[in-house]
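Retro notes - structure team

What went well: the batch runner handled both jobs without manual restarts.
What didn't: labels got mixed up in the shared folder, which is why I'm recording both outputs here explicitly, each with its sequence directly above its tokens.

Job 1
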Amino acid sequence: MSSRERILGRVRRALADVPPDEDAPVERDYLREHGERTVEETVDLLAENLADYRAVVHRTDSEELPHLIMRLLAQRGPQYVLVPPGLPPEWMSAADPTRVHDRAVSTARELDQVESVVTGCAVAIAETGTIVLDGSPDQGRRRISLIPDHHICVVRVPDQVVASVPQALERLDPARPLTWISGPSATSDIELDRVEGVHGPRTLEVVLVR
């Protein structure tokens, strides 16, 4: 008997008392979040865990946001910045670099010539320090957040901040192209030497904007 047949046999035995065409209920009695927090404490936890993953965290308000993005881009000195089609235009109203709009015909080689990208996000998870992109117009296609070396991601506080992964999943459409980001792209070799920017941006800057 193969391993496949053994596993399927166990599944059949486990479902033996379930009537045909009836789905077995799945118990979901796990904790939805760990501890009780105020909105401010949840946002603070998000900032703490983002920083722990080596993301650079900034806090601002909607009026100051365009000037903060301008300063962050000026510090990097990019000639071009990639923007998704639905990025709110006021976010980039003070920025100097030439904006490159993502197009379906854009190749990976062309996108690799762009140093920075600015996006929004779908949701941010405080307990894990994770931001999730779902391909919405203010985030664009998955590859535009993976190819440039510098990613500025704007999180609307507190509307887009949740405490836990279960709460995030309730907001997300599993049919959409979800990208889960916890800090800048990194890996390590057998000697545990950390290398950043391997399969995504080397620098991740998260802007928490009220």
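Job 2
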Amino acid sequence: MTAQRDRIRGYVASHPGVHFNQLARDLDLATGQLQYHLKKLHRADDLVSESLYGRTHYFTPEYEAWERGAVAVLRRETARDVLLYLIEAGPSAPTPVADDLDIARSTLEWHLDHLIEQNLVEKRRDERGRVTLVLSRPDETAELLRLVEPSVPERLVDRFTRLVDSLVSE
């Protein structure tokens, strides 16, 4: 393996779920050069990619499919905030979650769709049809939260979305 591929693999190992653009920025590699090395790493089974929600995320092979999907979602600050809220508060109705996180209910639902799709959160209904949000895999989710920290650009996108939501709802 070349030094450049070792560098890319090492970065991905220490930043699971990093997406292509972040990888290019952080390693200061040209797009074509990064594509070339990622293709070689993928063919050698040294890296695995997962395309979710408009981004391709990269992982070392030891990550299972559930972990890859979960990490891709956890790279979004608002999704992380929802999960941290549910870890701290326990099962909760959607309205208090949205209110306490100061996000629009539609923003919460957008993130919940992805959290549910990746089997991180469940919506449970009581006999009157009221929804409660519950963590699907609390121990594994808490462990993954320790591994992943959203990048600055990812945080900026989430914060911009929150700002637009707050302006639209006024």
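One thing worth noting from job 2: DSSP finds nine helices and five strands in the chain.
We'll revisit the folder naming next retro.
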